[in-house]
Amino acid sequence: MVFGILKLINFAHGDVYMIGAFVGYYAARFFGLLHEPSISSFGIVLISSMFICAFLGFLIERIAYRPLRSAPRITSLITAIGISLFLEYCAQLIFGPDPKVFPQILNSVNLVQWGEVALNSYHVLIFSVSFILMVLLRFLVLKTKYGQAMRAVSEDVKVANLLGLPTNTIISLTFIMGAALAGAAGVLVGTVYPRIDPLMGIVPGIKAFSAAVIGGIGNFPGAVLGGLIMGLSEEMVAAYWSSSYRDAIAFAFLIIILLVKPSGFFGKYHPEKV
Amino acid sequence: MRRNMTVATILTNVFVSLIFVFSLGCTKKQQQSSETSKKSSQQNLETNDTILIGAVLSLTGPEATFGISTKNAIELSFEQKNKEGGVLGKKLKLITLDNQSKPEESAIAITKLITQDNVVAVLGEVASSRSIAMAPIAQSNKIPMLSTASTNPKVTELGDFIFRTSFIDPFQGPVLARFVFENLKMKKVAIFKDVKNDYSIGLSQFFKEKFVELGGQIISEQSYSAGDMDFKAQLTAIRSAKPEFVYLPGYYTDVGLILRQARELGIKVPFGGGDGWDSPKLFEIGGKATEGGYFSNHYSPEAEDPFVQSFVKEYEAKYGTVPDALAALGYDSGIIMIEALKNSKSLAGTDIRDALAKTSKIKGVTGIITFNSQRNPIKSAVIIKIEDGKQKYVTTIDPS
Amino acid sequence: MMSQPAEAILKVDNLSIAFGGLQVLMNVDFSVYSNEIVSLIGPNGAGKTTVFNIISGLYRPTSGSILFHSKNLTGMHPHRISNIGITRTFQNIRLFKDLTVLDNVIIAKHFAFCYKLLGSLFYTPAYVEEEAKAEKDALELLAVFGLAERAHDISKNLPYGEQRKLEIVRALASGVKILLLDEPAAGMNNAETSALLKLIHHIRDTFKITVLLIEHDMKLVMKISDRIIVLHHGEVIADGTPSQIRNNPHVVEAYLGNPT
Amino acid sequence: MWTYLKRQQAYLILGVFLVVLSFIHTHISPYLRQLLILSGINIILANGLNLISGITGQLSLGHAGFMAIGAYASAYLSVFVTGPESFAFLLNILAGGCLAGFFGFILGLPTLRLKGDYLAIVTLGFSEMIRVILLNMDSVGGARGLPQIPHNTDLIWTAGAVGLSLIFIYRMMKSYIGRAFLAIRENELAAQSCGINITKYKVISFTSGAFLAGIAGALFAHQLSYINPSIFGFIKSFEILIMIVLGGLGSLSGATLAAIILTFLPEALRPLQQITQIDFRMIIYSSLLIVMMLTRPSGLLGKRELWDFKIFGAFRRS
What we know:
The complex is a heterotetramer of chains A (274), B (400), C (260) and D (318). With 274 residues, chain A is mostly helical. Chain A contains eleven helices and four strands; from the N terminus they run H-H-H-H-E-E-E-H-H-H-H-E-H-H-H. In chain A, helix 2 (13-30) packs parallel to helix 4 (73-95), helix 2 crosses helix 8 and helix 6 packs across helix 8. Chain A is globular and about 55 Å long. The two termini of chain A are 29 Å apart. Chain B has two domains: 50-167 and 302-369, Response regulator (Rossmann fold), CATH 3.40.50.2300; 170-297 and 384-397, 3-Layer(aba) Sandwich (Rossmann fold). Chain B contains 14 helices and 15 strands. In chain B, the strands form three sheets. Chain B has a seven-stranded mixed β-sheet, sandwiched between helices. In chain B, helix 3 (64-83) crosses helix 13, helix 7 packs across helix 8 (198-214) and helix 10 runs parallel beside helix 11. Chain C has 260 residues and is of the alpha/beta class. Helices cover 38% and strands 23% of the residues of chain C. Chain C is built from ten helices and ten strands. Chain C has helices at residues 48-55, 78-84, 101-108, 117-122, 125-144, 160-173, 190-207, 218-224, 242-246, 249-254, and strands at 10-19, 22-32, 37-41, 63-68, 71-72, 86-88, 178-182, 210-214, 227-232, 235-240. In chain C, strand 4 and strand 5 form a beta hairpin. Chain C starts with 9 loop residues before the first strand and ends in a 6-residue tail after the last helix. Chains B and D meet through helix 1, helix 2, strand 2, helix 4 and helix 5 of B and helix 1, helix 2, helix 6 and helix 12 of D.
């Protein structure tokens, strides 16, 4: 989403997600929730992580992106890489490079069991939390004043500015929301895959970027579809073909998709106006 | 006029190319000068009251966790020795350089250690890929290098100045293969390896060769990449192959997650791996899912041996965590190096090399260590079973 | 003036194009004869620029064709059309902004170079001669338009009018036979426009080329054109001399009774 | 006439430089020598990418992939086919470069019509594919890498390769081909209307850039004596991209300068780590990167070259 509005590859997004997971880890310790798995303790951890990541997002935007808004895009790209490296190495220094074990803040219960397939409380949780957040987000973007302003900025920053919209505030806000979502993702992933380490954000960062590109940059359902395609093609290749060539084949798909549809699935193809 | 001038330019071109070719001839001189520079550095050292030992380790980057536990353990061994008064009346000093977990940085770091810091010997690296990048430099400068945990047989084949503390893949892989086939009486095995990791690839290759040779069957081979989060697709494929045992030679950082997901998918057969499993983190990450797993290791921290116990205690006191296998190997590397320095005629590289080569029956945490003529340790491996969140000693397998 | 040779240099034959169901051009049919200045006019959205885009090869027509000396250009790559001798300027100026004025012109002389890459690497006589000649020609051309002094300036630093001029120089440098000008007078004041008028006549006479232009400034159009073609809703509604066009009721209607 | 003399001088300076180098390279410390060689390799890489991204304006995130192809091809030849003779080495470097160039051609032909981020992701995907394929190729060692590559690369070879590639790019820039690249970067439509076949020149630029990356990869492999696929991950591509952006996109001397600075910077920061016992070398590196980008968004030199600056006026070319 941040991507769509700022038309900017935010490689640091994956690292915000990493920080989110670590904040969750320390929040759980701080509030003494290590041994009381329950929905409420999960909620506390989730919200504190989202809150701190939102703040981090605000800082990143303020320090590194705002001054560069008018600079060439490749400059912002490099700055994003710089921030990403910075967060990674800081995390290695502060949290230590060894993987941490994310505390169990929610019990894992098999809710339904069909033969070998089980529906775990974690899956329900991930699904419901993502669903709630998505609904909230859509509401925010489509129904509120801020959402309208946001979409306006996404269409054309200059025009929005001329219309008297506080573009800086809106971009900040977008960034903050994106970061908060990344923080939530960090906690969710930490809960389900209880191993967190300072470099866990790199690969998801790249994959999220690829997904957004396949879907068509700046397109919301496109990004979701792109994510599904990336994930499914990897899983399918791993399960039925060859798990060692998994990434290669996933990327080959990606290249073929882009050759057939040069602007992704839902991207609008704008032939340059002459 | 114009034509004349171009002829001139072409002549200059030819001239420059000639110089280029000529200068290539000069490169031969290179070796002699590095020899002389080292002579002077050694004199420098004799007068000092410290002995400088270098270490190149991955203190940052994706494999930082292994580098740091190795560094901690080496420092611990040096500290203990220095408390006893050092070696030959001199204090030991460790200079550790980071390599960002990259082979090319390792090569730079070891060059700096040898030529700038004038160390007498080098410890490291953990990963074979980085040791292989370092070894030719140690060899050509005639400085002994002791790799702590590189298991690729290639490492020590690169020269007679290269030693190692850990056992090699062709030993460790077959150990578990024999155990699975002979002791557990299982014939159908699936392999799940880390495609990015040379250690994992090496172990699975030698495991496979031995297991097939014994008469067993590898019914499925799947791979993952270190750092992945979700392994369900591969595990589903393994499940449908219905193996009796799954060989998972990876590092504990991934193994814990994999075991968890395997149990969630309902795979009930035992898993097994190598010394990469050895870390208290494995139980923390994997929880109950690790129960019943087997792995080959250098030692068992649970062993009654007071030497092992005191190492575990001191390491925990100093760094706040239980040492993993890499720490144990780092500690033993420190001990071997100290012993060699004690027995060495001088601090010249060749003398330390000779002393290292004579290493025999040194008691370390990872067993009684003797170097063979290929500069690899001859030591036994233990098989460990995980029971009640603890490592339980099963059996010792001697090198054959 | 209107003595038309038998064969048209450029013939637009029955051209139609549609973008996703929107019919932009419908059976557009006209010819341009050698050494003529022809204006293409029409209200906004009439499809004038689209005609240019098709002629210069950026769009492919749905049906119909473009003939240059009875050679079919339809579907040819834009760079080949340029090499044949049809070059255009753009409504929104498209210079190579960060390069010097001189480089802008030399780039357009692209076709003139025959030496190979090796020639440049080894500094062969062919390379030296061709480069020197290209630079000399470019400077001469710039001098004709009074831009020689600014040859080494970065082109984005030129004033607006000179940027327009430079775009024309660049087109001329590429060995143009038919020059397509897309609103050359846009944003110019009266003095500049009349200078442009002279300039276009001058170009036509000295370089012996044919000019096809799109323009909204009716005063300019009426003065400059040998012939005017009027497009409305993607169709040619009139084709004739300025005086014929001025009195054409269809045209008057298309412009809501308000021609200049 | 004047330019001729200048040119002669330039060649002579280069020649003298090589002679001096051949004498001093045996006397400088091996550590410095190694860093110089590595800077040289980075200079070639950076300028190759600069040709694609800085001069022709096509954002590529896959430079490490081409480097891998060059490294593996030449190393394979050296280890399994020819052996360590200097002449064979020369041929192997060229073979590595050519194969990388060939792959650049194959990849460039269909993909260069993509723009911006889409091209970036395709090149990134390509280099990841190369890496995964190498991981699974047992004939070159797979994940265990390819050891015992003859240690042929020395300072002279590197200096020679750097010199030749810089001359290659510089001469290219001074020809109609280089001008076509610039025209494409500035405005594709206008370039087309000037009669420039943009696909052709994009492919030429991409192929040459890939060729140079292959050469650099070959030198790299014969310098380290060992390669494995993980060396050539996307992080490597980013490092090269950082060099050219830091130096100023499109600036030959800028990319060269930045390549040298960025090779030496982590080493220069080592003492700091030894004093403090905390490894924040890379934190400083990344903060410097951010600060640099904030204060000089168009890089150290922007689009200019070193000799465009007043201080270097003495060397200014006529």
